[in-house]
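Example 3.2
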Amino acid sequence: MVAPKFFVVARVVGRDGALPLWKERLVHLCNASATETLGDSYYWGQDLDGEPDTLWGLEGYTHPAGFFLGHVSTDIFKREMALVDSDRLLRNEQGLASRDYNLHHYDWAGGWLKRADDPDYASKSLNGALQSFGILKEVRDEKMLTLWVRTPEEFDALKSSKKFQDLMSVAKAKSDKTEIHLSRAFNGHLDLNSSTIR
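Structure, written as tokens:
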């Protein structure tokens, strides 16, 4: 039996002015993630919902052990998290147990993270096309589903398209609550351990 890939969507609330230091920390964490045996995706962006020092991340692993045992046990992770704490980069409280780390854990349910003609996280070569369309099923909340979309166009253009409006109409009809969150990517990699769509 093959298990689905395991993902974490992270919202990390940073203190005012912390973004440049977060970017430094994530250079090393992204590089380390790309070499981990069970690592698959490690993709980070800046919040566009009005909290410019808050981060949104997508971490993907071929097995949950990659997150719970692999990534967090590396020397690089421990070093960078110590620097996060010493620089007081979180808004309310420091440490891995901080409420400023808002994590949701998912199984991969369908879609794609990267296209064959999409060379890197910041590619602008796919004008008008969806670069990612990942469907993630929350592990601990039977009613929670996340649609993770990546596009080179501005969100307003995507939001006004008929296909997106139809999709949101279906989602709202089947949901008690829907939320949309935006971020702009600044570092990361996607889908290292599977085929891309063509």
